[in-house]
Every structure is written in structure tokens, then in C-alpha cells.
Amino acid sequence: MSEPTPDSAAEAPPAVRVPPARPGRSYDRSIVEGPLPAAIWKLAWPTMFTNILGGLQGMVDHVMVGHYVGFRGNAAIGVSTQVFIVVVAFIMSLFTGMSVLVARFVGANDPLNADRAVYQAFLTAIALSLGIMAPLGYFLSPALLDFVNAAPGVQAEALPYLRIMFVYSLGMLLFYMLGGALRSAGDARTPMVLGVAMTLGNIVLNVIFIRGLGPIPGYGTMGAAIGTVIACGLVGAYGVWRLWHGGWVVSFPREMGYRPDWAIIRELFRFGLPTGIQGIAMNVGGVLMLKFIGSLAASAAAQAAYAVSYTQLFAFITWTAVGLMGAAAAVAGQNLGAGHPERVREGVRIAARYAGMGAGVIGLTFLFIPRTLLGVFGMDDPVAVDIGVQLLRVLSVSGIFIATALAYTGGLQGTGDTRGPLYISIISQIVLPLGICFTIQQLGTLESIHIWIAILVGHMARSTLSMLRFGQGKWREIEVRVK
Fold it and tell me: Taking a C-beta distance cutoff of 8 angstroms, is the pair 462, 421 a contact?
């Protein structure tokens, strides 16, 4: 793939006359005019809080499933989540393209085109999720679980969970679309409120459907999926209603009609498709890594350790880093749209420093109290615990590198450079870690520690390459082609 064509360093002015924003709506100009540390923190902390609270909901799933089903239920959720993300990454890439456009237009104080981008992302996501992801996900789920070498007991728990997530995923997609649009426009608090509502509803519903309540039977692992899709669907429906009626910093543009706008959709894919391929590449790498884990002598125990240590506990680092990644993207996109490239560079560096420090603090708990953390999830199998402790100690170092990488990735993607992170992810998430595992497997006996070290090497490479790519400054020349 070639880089986006840099016809000039300046943006082409939109040809459409911009009507005034709807009453009560205004953009937060402190992002392009005020102190950068304050702007980064204002955008990041609500997302961090939402991610942590949402992650706690996932932990409730694992804790309850671990107690009521056993560690095979934990492994089933971990494997299913990895497979689900591979497929959903493509549709989610549209929201990266939408965020690039919204941030750029908001920075240029162009509300009409910002709203156009949100609505066209909404239409495209519905078409792809209902027309492609739901039917294909349902029928391909057994083959996908076979591909990752899920043990028979794990696969029996994972199949109904995965099918429910695929078929009823639209609410989750709408929630992520709303969050991306609002944060890119400078409003991180409304997504936080929506996230809190969804998480609390999800926890209540999962408690009901996992263990059962009154006349409602307990569905075990499958109940976690049922609660998730219901909670996401309710919040997604409310968000669409609000976008239709207005009152948020973005809304549906009634002035332009409601048919597909192919100029906007092309830009969604131009910026978003590389991110989708990147997401698929990263998660295919994760699935292939699960295949290596499945080849170990104690495969079920290793899968359970990976599901809890990496998917759940390591998420404390990625949740905070993703909040800073989103802040870096919004600050970078809006300041580039406002013609302040020097603020783009400084804002991303500030976000990276915050991310690295936060990961270091969380990593200390992985290093000093790993068994306590694993015990919270009901993990008492001695082999699974030993493997989980081993992984957490490696992740205590690895987290610093991935957190820094995510901040720089946000800066690149926010400015529209979505192809650079794609190339970096292919090298760091596929070529290096999988190559290490394959080589060791061919030359000797692959053990769990070899897989964990391969993950660390990949994270180190991603951090280094992301910083180098951002330092090249090619993002200065990327323009949005919307008339």
C-alpha cells in the first residue's frame, strides 16, 4: 500500500457553505488554543475511567464464570474474545476513519462536515454488521475455534458465547461509534456517562444470566454474552435517538438528507481501512499466538493463564493507554485541522509520557503480587497459576513499551497517517513474535516462557518503530478530500 497522497501541506477548504451549528452546540476550543497538558488530561481521564469500569465488568464475567463453570469457562471467554475482535476490527476501522474526519473538521470549525462524517459512518456500520458480520460470524464460529486449537471442553463453552456476540453485535458497534465521534469533537465526558450506564447494566444482567435468578435459568458462559449484547443494545439505541434529536456536540445532519454520501464513505475507508487491516493483523497475530499456546503440553492451563493475565489484568495498562491514545488522536487531528502542527507534536509527546508512567505503576503490581491478582479470578489450578505468574512478570516490563506505542499510534492515526501503524503492526505483532515462536518450535521444545518473551519483543519493536514514524513528520502533509 502507498502512503496517502500529500498534494499540499494545507487542507483544501470545503466547497459546501457551512450553516450555523444547532442551538446549544459549541466546540471546546481549548484543545487548539489552551495548554496541552490540560487538554490531554481532559480528554484522557474520562476514557480511562470508562475503560477501567468497563473492564471491571469483563472481570465480573471471568470471576463468575470461573466460580460457576471453572477455568475452562475463563479460557472460553478469552479465546472467543480474541476471535471476535479479529472479525469486528474491520468494521471498527470505519470509526477510526470517522474520527480522523470529525477531529479535522472540528479543528477547522466546520460542524456540517463533522456531522456528515458521523452519519455516513453510522450507515456503513449498519450495512456491514448486519449484512456481513452477523451471518458469517454465526456459521464460521466452529471453524474459527478449531483454528485456534481450543480444547474440546473450552470449545463447548465458547461456541454459543461467540455466536451470540456475532449475531447481536450492532449495539456494541454503535456504542463505539458514539464514543469515537464525541471524543474526536472534544467531548469525552458524554461517552463516559454512556459507558458507566452500559457497564452497570451489563454487570447486573450478567449476574442474572450467568448464575440465574428466579424463573431465569443460569446460562453459565453463554449468559455473559447475553448480558453484554442487551446492555450494549440499549445504550446504542439511546445514542442514535440523541444523534437524531440533537443536543450533543455532534448530530445527524438534517440539512444534507439521509442517503449515502459516497465522497464521505470513500474517505472513511481511505483513512479507516488501513486501521482495519492493522486491527485484523494484530488480532490474527493474537489468534496465531493462541495456536502456539494450544500446542503446549498444558494447553488448557496456559490458555486460562493467558485469558486472565493478558486479556484481563494486562488490560489495566491498555485501558489507561487507550485513553491517552484517544486523547492524542483528538488533539493531533484538531490541531492539524486548525493549522497548528507544532502543537500536534508536543501533545503526542505529552500523552506518551503519561502513558509510560501509568504502565510502570501498574506493572509493579504484576511483579510483586501476581498470585493475589490471579486468585481474584478463582484461578486455583497450580499449573495455571504458575504459568500466569510467569506471564505477569514479563508483562510488568512489556506494558511500558506498549503504552508508549499506543500514544504515538493515536497521534499518527489522528492526523490521518493510518498506514504507518499498519506496517508497524505487521512487523511487531506478526513477523517478530510469531517468527520467534515458530523458530523455537522447529529447533526444540516450545515452552510458555518463550511465548511470553516473544510478546515482549513485539511490544518493544512497536514502541520504537512508532516513535520513529511519528518523528518523520509525514503526517503534516495529509489532507482530507471532502468537497
Answer: no
The three cell numbers locating residue 135: 451471518
- Whose cell is 466546520? That residue is 110
- The domains of the chain are located at 35-473
How confident is the model over 288-330, as pLDDT tens digits?
Answer: 888 899 888 888 889 889 988 998 889 889 989 999 999 999 9
Grid coordinates of 288: 496465531
- Whether the CB-CB separation of 76 and 219 falls below 8 Å is answered with no
> What sign does the dihedral 373-225-317-402 (CA atoms) show?
positive
CA distance 411 to 352: 10
**Do residues 320 and 362 lie in contact, with contact meaning Cβ atoms separated by under 8 Å?**
yes
- Residue 123, classed as helix, strand or coil, is helix
Alpha carbon of 467 to those of 36, 131, 424, 473: distances in Å? Answer: 19, 38, 11, 11
Could you tell me the end-to-end alpha-carbon distance of the chain, in angstroms, rounded to an integer?
Answer: 25
Task: Residue 186: name the closest of 323, 55, 325, 334 by CA.
Answer: 334
Report which secondary-structure segment, H or E, holds 178. helix 170-184
Q: What angle do CA 412, 463, 354 make, to 5 degrees?
A: 75
Is a pLDDT exceeding 80 seen at residue 5? no
The pLDDT value recorded for residue 307 is 85
- State how far the Cα of 40 lies from the Cα of 31, in Å rounded to an integer: 8
pLDDT at 317: 93
